[in-house]
Design brief:
about 15% strand; alpha/beta; Glutathione S-transferase Yfyf (Class Pi), Chain A, domain 2; 8 strands; 3-stranded antiparallel β-sheet; 2 domains; about 280 residues; Glutaredoxin
């Protein structure tokens, strides 16, 4: 374990299945292993009858991820990092908070050039990559959720739209491929940074749903494999309950985050299931 960081707050992650909360859990697992950070994890099934109520109780948006902060000791006043005291929303902002408060600066790029690069791919991840992946997924899901009698008709009607967005994704993957090199194997530059965490969710989804061709974009494929191969990430994936087939284009991984015994977790919520798979809505 690296240098221990003084922990002023204990975060609690409210994780809704198939959400970007997994990236937050991964980031906390990294700092749990390197700096001894402790956190709580509460898991909620996306279609649970009480899920929306539970999330609305901690955030007006009712979306995942949400992180609440419990001050350690009375010397730390309530933190107004965003709008609500001791409450964090938006995965990018949560990742920034984790970097600012639970690390010794190892997620900050070392050179000015890499700082600019990190900022670019940070915005590229959410504003370009994830947005386009969401478009493809949306039209696939609408068709898959339709009654059987019109499902194939909708798939036929949506196919040109899906093909158009997949073409856009190929251009996006090309930008990503050209941005990586032996000297800069990470989107943050020479070492992993917040841009890589932000890029991972959309790329996990791309890989699982078959949007991404690993042979055509070998450097991106190598980067993605490196994110999954990190010890903390690998342990999360390997502790999955089992692999299932869902009504989707490919077999999807299903990760149970309940009772996985992660190093930094103080306690899990009482909810009985939380699954990580991008085919759940389909």
């Amino acid at each position: 374990m690296a240098q221990t960081v003084e922990q002023k707050w204990i975060p609690t992650v409210y994780n809704m299945s198939s959400s970007q909360a997994f990236v937050v859990v991964w980031a906390l697992e990294e700092v749990a292993g390197s700096h001894g950070i402790k956190y709580n994890l509460k898991n909620f099934p996306r279609r649970g009858k009480d899920t929306n109520t539970e999330f609305k109780a901690v955030s007006p948006l009712g979306k995942s991820p949400v992180v609440t902060l419990e001050p350690v000791g009375s010397q730390h006043p309530p933190l107004e990092y965003q709008v609500l005291p001791n409450t964090l929303i938006e995965s990018s902002s949560i990742l920034q908070f984790i970097s600012d408060n639970f690390t010794t600066g190892e997620r900050v790029p070392e050179s000015p050039q890499d700082k600019l690069r990190d900022a670019f791919f940070h915005n590229f991840a959410k504003g370009t990559l994830l947005a386009k992946v969401d478009f493809v997924l949306l039209f696939e899901v609408i068709a898959m959720l339709a009654p059987w009698g019109i499902r194939h008709l909708l798939l036929l009607l949506f196919r040109p739209i899906i093909s158009h967005f997949l073409g856009d994704l190929r251009d996006i993957y090309t930008v990503m491929e050209n941005g990586l090199s032996e000297e800069k194997p990470w989107f943050s530059g020479s070492k992993i940074g917040l841009a890589d965490f932000n890029m991972s969710f959309a790329m996990d989804m791309s890989a699982q749903r078959g949007y991404f061709d690993t042979e055509k974009y070998p450097k991106v494929a190598k980067w993605h494999a490196a994110t999954l191969g990190r010890p903390r990430t690998r342990e999360l994936w390997e502790r999955q309950a089992h692999t299932i087939w869902l009504l989707s284009r490919r077999p999807l991984l299903r990760l149970c985050l309940d009772n996985i015994g992660t190093e930094g977790v103080i306690s899990n919520g009482p909810e009985s299931e939380s699954f990580f798979s991008y085919g759940e809505l389909a």
